[in-house]
Amino acid sequence: MSVLSAVFLGLVQGLTEFLPVSSSGHLSVLQNLFVMETSENGRLFFDVMLHVGTLVSICAVYRKGIAEMALLLTGFIKNGGQPRYEMKKPVKAQRLIIMLAASVLPLFLIIPVRKYTEKLFYSTVFIGIALIITGIMLFVSDKFAPGKKNERNMTVKDALIVGLCQAVAVIPGLSRSGATISGGLACGFDREFSIRFSFLMSIPAVLGATLITLVDAFKEGIEVSLIPVFLLGAVVAAGAGIAAIKLIERLSLRGHFGKFAYYCWIIGLLTVILTLIA
Description:
Elements: H1 3-18, H2 23-34, H3 43-61, H4 63-78, H5 92-104, H6 114-119, H7 124-141, H8 156-168, H9 176-186, H10 191-220, H11 227-253, H12 260-277
Helix pairs in contact: 1-2, 1-3, 1-11, 2-7, 3-10, 3-11, 4-5, 5-8, 5-10, 7-9, 7-12, 8-9, 9-10
């Protein structure tokens, strides 16, 4: 893999992981239609590095909230599982941990079908159609009335619904951020919280998927000489991810979240057309 390809794919991963346009769909289309692949013994490991880069993006942007939750959990563990007095209060961090934990549960539903969904990455026609569906979802979500729910008053049911949206979005071409943010808006979340909850709940999901892929990557084999190039791709993905998170926050708060629908429709149609004429 060349340095230019690593930088380009890192940029695509970082931007599309958080913008509601499906990172998996874009990477699959680029690799399938334009044969932009890594070497035979490095594809999976490069995917792992790109996802590590996007995890760094989330941790950098939401470092304060993540630190609060980490301190809360650390204190709980050190105290032998008994919450200290101040931890008994209904603080935001405490409720957010519970809701994030609940949102992860639907992911266990996809474990039995994981191998089948992975095969869809090689069907560019399917990915194109899924991108069009993503566009429809984004367009509709922008019409929802502004909600008022956040970590203080959301319910476990809300967390499970948004978690189910995340589970369904493992299908390539369906945007994870688009599905979860739209699901949050449908549940009555305010726009800022819907975005923040979507990105925070992606941490355990992406981390789990990354660890599983890492095992497969070691089985596949890794070209040690390409590790510096892979690291460069991860750094680019992290930087692009931070920019994408800031952009989606700004656009969504201004009520422009649905504008991404037009992009998804165009890319989806082009993907289907190019596949059929190729």
